[in-house]
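Schema walkthrough. Field components (list of strings):
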Amino acid sequence: MATDKTSSLDEIIGELSSGMTIGIGGWGSRRKPMALVRALARSEIADLTVVTYGGPDLGLLCAAGKVRKAYYGFVSLDSPPFYDPWFAHARTTGAIESREMDEGMVKCGLEAAAARLPFLPIRAGLGSDVRTFWGDELRTVASPYDDGETLIAMPALNLDAAFVHLDLADKHGNAAYTGVDPYFDDLYLAAAQRRYLETDRIVETEELVKTVPTQRLLLNRMNVDKVVETPNGAHFTFAGEYKRDEKFQRFYAESAKDPESWKVFSDRFLAVDEAEYQKQVKLWQEEQA
Amino acid sequence: MSEVTLADICVVACAEIFSGAGEIMASPMATTPLIGARLVRLTTEPDLLITDGEALIFADTPAVGAKGDIEGWMPFRKVFDVVASGRRHVVMGANQIDRFGNQNLSAFGPLQQPTRQMFGVRGAPGNTINHPTSYWVARHSKRVFVDQVDIVSGVGYDKADPQNPAYRDLNIHRVVTNLGVFDFGGPDHTMRALSLHPGVTADEVAANTSFEIAGLAEAGTTRLPSDEELRIIREELDPKGLRSKEVPQPEAAK
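Field assembly_structure (string):
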């Protein structure tokens, strides 16, 4: 019988420490492991380097002052006001160091790490200010063949830990996405030392494999160290079984505008555990109806 | 057929971005070029691939915002494979463009402490180095067309290293704005006017651009949509008139 990896959010956060490099799955405001992000934001852990296709995950960690350095292809809320206010605040105040890169370079760097390679060549980045963002940390490589090409040598994005959210999983770490896009969640876990999966629902293996076509079984047991059941855990981003909570996301963005409104938001939704967060979100939705 | 609007003309100019494109993926990133790409697919470029902007490839050519039958799957990870293959033409927006085609959609100000944060570079570096790229600017102004962009997201011609074949596919095909149609066929690959929209003067373009545009005096007039194109735009692709929100009708022309 394979290992039972079910665990709590706090148990997972307890395995992390300040200064780590953490990869966060999903994309923009799509299937982000928000329950794990919320747990990290309210922990004592700080001084993080974050690797992400950024959305409100990066925003919430910036709001909590947890981020020292960020590696990202973009940061977007995917719907108005599009630009994440807390990421913008961290940038305009110089609070974080950026290693901005082309979106394709994120995938390339995760693939290099997954294959335990020091780098992979890629065209994207040449001629752009990605070079300036990275300085000496990003170098080129000349083809050893007769083509004469010099390419970006995208370094491996090795992660100390990675968080992903998938819609359905078993207690051993087999997991599937049920929406339209796997994003890059398998690559994040493959690039990481410690691999953490949150899921809307833990089911028996038999039910998992009967529920989805086999091609949706994105993760197998070798990819995952801990799995935590977090119903609606990707909220307020969307996941396979639910839409983005556009109203709440707008409320999040508007609340960031001044310290008082942020304190109200923060006290109600961030200084609380996941169960209380979900309860308060339900109440808030009823208040808005 | 009622009066042709500036928005209709811009849609057709965006459609012509894809003339001769063949069997590649058209990736328009705003409403006007999206209607343009679908218009050209329904007229002269039936082999174009278009998506729902999420992960599905449309078999149909539906109206803006509508669903349609699909023919395939295009999740983000496969989009990067398409980018690297070169079989794509993207039409991006731009916060800034300079005379050599460098584009910025990342942030304004210093790289590590910007004065205003936008998206970051997104896929602009990879798009521009790999396959044809065009730009759509709904409000042509000196704030967009600048002497120097703050952050180079999209690569311009003066950044290309002629000794390095990795730059061989850099191709900034067109810039379509609410004033006219441009390319980078001026001296040393600088921005050049191909046509100005009906009623737009060379002086107006010059007054709204920080640098000199080549061929401005000689530029002809952007063609009007055909009756069939107008019918497709108005009845099939954009019956709600979303294009007019992106390109309002100028006061003088009303």
